[in-house]
């Protein structure tokens, strides 16, 4: 950290009433952000988001946190901010990530997933703020192209050809055109058990603490449901997945057939993008732990490719990427 940023952090903590606080590393993520837990001398706690300027921007997080709070959900409250230097001091929502709670008490799994689905039902009752980016067809196609940029070269030992790129884009455009154009819900985009905190003392959807939503967009609500239920981080039982989809459909009144088609298409898009992103995190950034999730990403992708809406994409994969060692559970040393 530069001397300028170090002084800015001292000033921020002092102005927020955390002068002399003890700072303990808490977590890092797939971006350049990192998080610390801050302990004030009087026992109060907060979480510091450190987002280096030029690489990250804290303003989208702050904007979306304000919207979610206005809609009576549970993002961390922003206690203090220095957007120029890339610092946010946030309410500490605790350590009860959904994955940890389920690990301690597997009997909580259904209740936690139901609570998470109810947050998405609540989001479906609002239009996305108009100043947020749109998760439209162009954005979806740009994201999924990361597979061609990173995963295909890793497996095939060469860059994707122009013809492969054109046919890949055409296949995905056919599969995604309907879900990308038909909805405008606030989509959090990284909605999964490692970004949800259990807050049982709160009521209704507010029992779910929300993290990592700075990349939120306006798009189709099936994206976040697929992020939650078709999750590369943990296996969700098929019966529970179907039950939660039905819970969402019953609560929102969404038509089942088109919603399930969008769920398959956007789940496949997400996991194809993840195969590219996680390969990049390994190759470019040295974050090898992301390789462990590639086999599950392939398994989920291949399942979704069985939906009729994805036939063009399934045909592309069969022709151009029929095999990947990660799909067989093999990862590099």
From TrEMBL:
Q: Which domain of life is it from?
A: Bacteria
One function term, GO molecular function aspect: transferase activity
Question: Which keywords fit this entry according to its UniProt record?
Answer: Transferase
Q: Kindly indicate whether the keyword Phosphoprotein belongs to this entry.
A: no
InterPro entries, A to Z: Aminoglycoside_PTrfase, Kinase-like_dom_sf
Name all Aminoglycoside phosphotransferase domain ranges. 23-253
Q: What is this protein called?
A: Aminoglycoside phosphotransferase
Species annotation: Minwuia thermotolerans
């Amino acid at each position: 950290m530069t001397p300028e940023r170090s002084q800015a952090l001292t000033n921020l903590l002092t102005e927020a009433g955390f002068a002399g606080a003890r700072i303990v590393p808490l977590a890092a993520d797939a971006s350049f952000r990192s998080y610390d837990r801050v302990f004030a001398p009087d026992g109060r706690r907060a979480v510091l988001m450190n987002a280096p300027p030029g690489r990250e921007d804290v303003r989208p997080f702050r904007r979306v946190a304000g919207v979610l709070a206005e809609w009576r959900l549970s993002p961390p409250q922003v206690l203090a901010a220095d957007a120029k230097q890339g610092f946010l001091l946030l309410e500490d929502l605790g350590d009860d990530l959904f994955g940890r709670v389920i690990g301690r008490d597997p009997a909580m799994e259904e209740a936690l997933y139901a609570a998470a689905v109810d947050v998405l039902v609540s989001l479906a009752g609002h239009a996305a703020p108009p100043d947020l980016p749109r998760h439209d067809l162009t954005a979806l196609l740009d994201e999924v192209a990361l597979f061609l940029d990173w995963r295909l070269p890793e497996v095939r030992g060469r860059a994707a050809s122009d013809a492969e790129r054109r046919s890949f884009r055409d296949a995905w455009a056919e599969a995604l055109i309907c879900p990308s154009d038909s909805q405008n819900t606030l989509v959090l985009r990284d909605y999964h058990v490692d970004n949800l905190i259990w807050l049982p003392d709160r009521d209704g959807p507010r029992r779910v603490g929300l993290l990592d939503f700075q990349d939120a967009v306006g798009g189709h609500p099936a994206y976040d449901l697929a992020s939650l239920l078709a999750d590369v981080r943990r296996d969700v039982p098929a019966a529970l997945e179907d039950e939660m989809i039905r819970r969402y459909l019953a609560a929102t009144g969404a038509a089942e057939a088109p919603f399930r088609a969008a769920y398959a298409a956007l789940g496949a898009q997400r996991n194809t993008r993840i195969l590219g992103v996680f390969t990049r995190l390994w190759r470019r950034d040295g974050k090898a732990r992301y390789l462990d999730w590639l086999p599950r990403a392939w398994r989920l992708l291949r399942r979704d490719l069985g939906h009729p809406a994805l036939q063009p994409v399934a045909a592309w994969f069969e022709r151009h990427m029929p095999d990947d060692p990660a799909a067989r559970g093999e990862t590099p040393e």
